[in-house]
Amino acid sequence: MSEWTEALTQWCADQPDLVPFTGQCAVHRGQIHRSHGEFQAALDELALALDRYAAAGMGPAVGLVHYERGEVLRTLGDLDGAQSEYDAAADFGLEPQPGQSLLWLARGRTDAAVSAAHRLLEDAHDPVTRSRRLGAIVEILCTAGHCEEARAPSTELLSIAESFGCDAVTASASYAAGLVALGADDDPSAALSHQRRAWKSWIALGARYDAARARVQIAHALGALGDTVSTRSELSVAQRTFAELGAEPARRAVEQLLTPALPDGLTAREVEVLRLVAAGHSNPQIAADLVLSEKTVARHLSNIFGKTGVTSRTAAATYAHSHDLLS
Prior knowledge:
Layout: H1 2-13, H2 19-35, H3 39-55, H4 59-76, H5 79-91, H6 99-106, H7 110-123, H8 127-143, H9 147-164, H10 167-183, H11 188-205, H12 208-224, H13 228-245, H14 248-258, H15 268-278, H16 283-290, H17 294-308, H18 313-322
């Protein structure tokens, strides 16, 4: 696609009056930028395409540009902006799917996303359209806890990928198969194999955002296999990639995975105090170690006792040991 778009761009440069083609060049460049995680560049190209198509009165093409802009904004975390773009795409006669359903999922409207996924399975029957939808459908169903339902669309996408021989479709199919292997089959080894295949394909294509998504799933599979050190390593790389690309929702999700949940509503600072109590430190020592006032340390201890139900420093130390809070 990059090679053909470059050739088309060079031709368009010599044909400035052919607005449909120059707009098409900009759309394809925007799509390529998006696939490479170059999101601002994608928005710039799509803005150019929008101006050219709008000037030529090409409604359906304008709808496509709005949809592509919605996809970029959803990835960046501008959910309101993405919704506006999807609405605009619909106004120009383009159904904004599957992006709209993924946006609903991101906003916690899980039932709406699942209902749309079911409809999308029945709406289109040509393999090209289905290849663009099935990956998102599998993701929606698995995220909503319907992984067994995702098995059939995942299998279909693998079949389409095999017939197409396209690396991007193969990567999407492998990613979907990995979700089903872990969520429906409880087979982390198979999931790991699928996700590593997806990661390698996306890396080869320069698709950094999607490759990082695969790394997150690799981490889930490794965690299920008990390899906690490798799990954190994969998540850390994915988090750095999302941060570099500006994909804030994905970065925050990985950050939550890297930050273990604390029991009984304890805060990170309260756990620090609790660890020092377990080590036998007095309140003045804790205050000095954490650069706090003794009054603040006493308040933290009071909160710890209230949240955990313990009544002494010895019981607090036992609690810290039993809940594995000392490392």
